[in-house]
Amino acid sequence: MFDAPGFTGAPLDRCDAARHDPALVAAMRADPEARLLALDGLEPLVEDGRLGWLPVPQEDGVALALLGRSEGRPRFAALTPGVSAYKRSPELMALLLDELPAGDAALYGVARSLIDWHARHGFCAQCGHATEVLRAGWARACPACGAQHFPRVDPVVIMIAEHDGRALLGRQPGFPPGRYSALAGFVEPGESIEEAVARELNEEAGITVEAIRYVASQPWPFPAQLMIACTATARDDALRIDTHELEDAFWASRDEVRAALAGAPDARFQPPPAYAIAHLLVRRWAG
Amino acid sequence: MFDAPGFTGAPLDRCDAARHDPALVAAMRADPEARLLALDGLEPLVEDGRLGWLPVPQEDGVALALLGRSEGRPRFAALTPGVSAYKRSPELMALLLDELPAGDAALYGVARSLIDWHARHGFCAQCGHATEVLRAGWARACPACGAQHFPRVDPVVIMIAEHDGRALLGRQPGFPPGRYSALAGFVEPGESIEEAVARELNEEAGITVEAIRYVASQPWPFPAQLMIACTATARDDALRIDTHELEDAFWASRDEVRAALAGAPDARFQPPPAYAIAHLLVRRWAG
Q1: Are residues A145 and A170 in the same domain?
Q2: Which of A177, B58, B175, B248 is the most exposed place for a label (fewest CB within 10 A)?
Q3: With a CB-CB cutoff of 8 Å, which residues 43-102 of chain A face chain B?
């Protein structure tokens, strides 16, 4: 169990100033202490329960992103065209849950989101021309039209609606058997966090909410969401479930949620995994 | 002065289900009650202090986005290739501040972010091919590689650090004369809201903060930010200003902030405009 949300707490100085200084980045790359994240595609190569790291290749042809500085060393990741795995493997999630320290999981998340963005954004959305890596891997530039493009971070609201001491939980078709979690959805252009929470709960469950409260946030590197966890109070408990989004939803009592979190054999549902902010949200609600 | 953050409160049912149903969108477009947002480029055409609306063109060649339903009418916006004005005119900001009702300004913000995104994302970032409008204007699809692309919403943290009863305010080089505001920066891949607040304050002002608290959020349609307002407590008040980002910064007392908000002739600075969430943040801090 994490005290802080999963994928937070990377022990990383992002060295923002260096990104604007190619000579400084070159010096950091040439530093014998510098290390390259060891990956197989987008999967981390683990050594003794920690992220694996390799010497940094010095050839010009290898595009690298400067992750920053961690444990005294410059840290890089290779930007490999075509390496993209939008999905996450069960093996990876088990590794993140059971084996890697939280800081390593968070550092891996930074690298994964960045590498995946480059792999899927090699062309200019404005004119279609091939783009080039800029700012030590934190942007791409189009040599044809001059547009600059920056890594996406997609804000997502994830929330528990409460009514009469019970919490609304739902399951998506792709969830593991028995799992229920907080409802969630992408924030759209032109709405606040609070408006997105109200809209998503209305669209997916047919409920109207008020008293929306922010709880916590986490980055989610599959591929690059910013998860924003909230609670809200429902005006009534009649559900109208959008079956395109949810397979099922129900109002869980505190006792049911506590039994699920405790892993009771007769629990009504399986809770979200510990690295997901939904777990923190459900746990805090259960008190 | 708005009670709610600027650009929130659009009286809009986004009709999410309709976006997935082309026949329903066609029926909404053919509805004689349907209206098209009146624009000159990206600037709104205002009638009697309200957004202007036109009959909806029925020709197939005009690409429209379904904004949703408002005041009983289907509402559309035309997607005009090449119409892009990343900058905002002083006339537009005056209009949003002084003339349009808050709900109209919010509805305009939805349309502006969406139109601007289409205008700058006509090509597939994954393969470079021209893309097509999908989901009634809420996505684009690539006919070559099959990738789907969704409108960007870029989360930004904006925050006041407090130390010993004073608030840290700064000014960027492009600000109007005398204006100081909360510091701000984009959330990056692999960090939480709280981590972004701490990093930005450290990068821009050289301070270390704790006790970060979420305050409120707003959409910012220039072009499509999600502004996330927070407060934090600084460990000490020594500043190391990043002159690439900030022209100046200082610790303002509550009396100085109140004088600025009251428009006192001898105020030390000009506050952010009322539609910006920085204004709400500063006002709440001043108490």
Answers
A1: no
A2: A177
A3: none
Letter string b/e over residues B182-209, b meaning 16 or more CB atoms within 10 A of that residue's CB: bbbbebbbbbbbbbbbbbbbbbbbebeb
**Chain A, 205-244: which have a CB under 8 Å from a chain B CB?**
214, 216-219, 221, 224, 226, 228, 242, 244
Q: Which of A98, A121, A149 is the last residue of a domain?
A: A149
CB contacts of B226 in chain A (<8 Å) are 155, 187, 192-193
Mutation for testing the B interface, residue in A148, A191, A227 having most B CBs under 10 Å: A191
Residue A247 DSSP label: S
- Amino acid letter for position A64: L
Chain B hits for A118, Cβ within 8 Å: none
Domain range holding B64?
16-149
Query: Of B16, B193, B242, which is closest to A203 when you measure between CB atoms?
Result: B16
Is a pLDDT exceeding 60 seen at residue A1? no
CA angle A83, A85, A87 (to 5 degrees): 175
Residue A7 to residue B190, Cβ atoms within 8 A: yes
Q: Are residues A54 and A96 both part of a single domain? A: yes
Q: Give B-chain residues touching A128 at CB under 8 angstroms.
A: 122-124, 128-130
Same domain? For B96 and B143 the reply is: yes
B132 lies within 8 A of chain A by CB: no
Q: Could you tell me the two tokens for B2?
A: 């708005």
Same domain, B112 and B167: no
DSSP state of A135: G
Contacts of B202 in chain A (CB under 8 A): none
Q: Is A158 on the interface with B (CB under 8 A)?
A: no
My answer on whether B30 and B68 are in the same domain is yes
The CATH number for A113's domain is 3.90.79.20
B278 and B165: one domain?
Answer: yes
* Contact check, Cβ <8 Å, B187/A149: no
One domain, residues B185 and B110: no
Q: Report the pLDDT averaged over residues A2-27.
A: 92
pLDDT in tens, B82-93: 776 667 888 898
Q: Which token pair is B134?
A: 């999908």
Number of domains chain A contains: 2
Weakest-pLDDT range from B1-10, B43-52, B275-284: B1-10
- Whether B276 is in a domain gets the answer yes
> Do B120 and B194 have their domain in common?
no
- Residue A9 inside a domain? The answer is no
The answer to whether residue A145 neighbours chain B at the CB level (below 8 Å) is no
Query: What are the tokens at B172?
Result: 């960027």
Is B113 close to A190, i.e. CB distance below 8 A?
A: yes
Helix, strand, coil distribution of chain A in percent, nearest 5: 25, 30, 45
CATH code assigned at B163: 3.90.79.10
Question: What is the ipTM score, two decimals?
Answer: 0.97
Structure-token pair, residue A223:
């591929």
Contacts of B17 in chain A (CB under 8 A): 203, 242, 244
* Residue A7 placed within a domain: no
Residue pair B11/B75 in contact (Cβ under 8 Å)? The answer is no
Mean pLDDT value across residues B60-70: 92
Strand, coil or helix: what is B23?
A: helix
